[in-house]
C-alpha cells in the first residue's frame, strides 16, 4: 500500500507553528520580550555552537517550563482550532486524494505533535510524529523526550512506523532542509508543492 508522508510547517500550513503557538499561548508581549533570546539561540544553532535540538529546547523551555499538562493540552486544542485557516487548500486536497485511493497518510514534523494531532484527526490522519515533550509530576520540564524530529530522525520515525516502507511506493511532501533525507528516499518527492500556489 502506498505511503504519503507530509511535513507540517510550511508544507500543510503556511507558517512555522512553534512560534505561532508560543505567541498565541503566552501572549505577544511575552514573545517580544523573549525575541532577542530566540534570535541569539537561532544564530548559535546556525553557527554550530549549540545543536538545533538544544537551541529549540531552550526556546520552548523559556516559555512553557512548569506549565501543567492539563493547561498545555487545552492550549493545544485552542491552537488546533486555528489550524484550518492556515492550511494550504491544495495540501488538503492532496491529502484527500491519497485517502480516497486508500494510501497510508502520515505527518512527520519537527514541531510538537500535541497541537497537530487534534487537527489531523478531523481530516482522518491518525499517524502524527514529531518532537515529543518531557513531563514530570504532571508538568512540562521544558525538555524534549525525543530527538528533534528533523533530517535523519524523520527517516527513522518513518521506518519505525512502517518497517516495510522500502517495498512500498513512497510519496513525500516537504519544504525545507529538514525534509531532504525523507525526500531523498521517496519514489515520488514533492518539494514546496503547495506554497507556490495562491491560497
Automatic annotation (TrEMBL):
It comes from the Bacteria. The chain crosses the membrane at residues 31-50. InterPro entries: HAD-like_SerB, HAD-like_sf, HAD_hydro_SerB1, HAD_sf. Pfam families: HAD (PF12710). Keywords: Hydrolase, Magnesium, Membrane, Metal-binding, Transmembrane, Transmembrane helix. GO terms for molecular function: hydrolase activity; metal ion binding. PANTHER family: PHOSPHATASE RV3661-RELATED, PHOSPHOSERINE PHOSPHATASE. This is HAD-IB family hydrolase. It comes from Parabacteroides acidifaciens.
Amino acid at each position: 500500500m502506498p505511503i504519503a508522508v507530509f511535513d507540517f510547517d510550511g508544507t500543510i500550513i503556511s507558517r512555522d507553528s512553534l512560534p505561532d503557538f508560543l505567541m498565541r499561548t503566552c501572549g505577544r508581549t511575552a514573545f517580544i520580550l523573549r525575541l532577542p533570546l530566540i534570535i541569539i539561540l537561532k544564530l548559535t544553532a546556525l553557527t554550530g555552537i549549540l545543536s538545533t535540538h538544544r537551541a529549540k529546547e531552550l526556546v520552548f523551555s523559556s516559555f512553557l517550563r512548569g506549565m501543567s499538562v492539563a493547561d498545555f493540552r487545552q492550549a493545544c486544542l485552542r491552537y488546533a482550532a486555528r489550524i484550518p485557516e492556515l492550511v494550504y487548500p491544495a495540501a488538503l486536497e492532496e491529502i484527500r486524494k491519497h485517502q480516497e485511493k486508500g494510501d497510508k497518510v502520515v505527518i512527520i514534523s519537527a514541531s510538537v505533535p500535541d497541537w497537530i494531532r487534534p487537527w489531523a484527526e478531523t481530516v482522518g490522519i491518525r499517524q502524527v510524529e514529531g518532537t515529543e515533550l518531557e513531563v514530570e509530576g504532571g508538568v512540562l520540564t521544558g525538555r524534549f523526550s525525543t530527538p528533534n524530529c528533523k533530517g535523519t530522525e524523520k527517516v527513522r520515525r518513518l521506518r519505525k512506523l512502517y518497517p516495510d516502507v522500502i517495498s512500498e511506493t513512497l510519496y513525500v511532501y516537504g519544504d525545507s532542509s529538514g525534509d531532504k533525507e525523507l525526500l531523498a528516499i521517496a519514489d515520488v518527492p514533492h518539494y514546496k508543492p503547495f506554497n507556490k500556489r495562491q491560497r
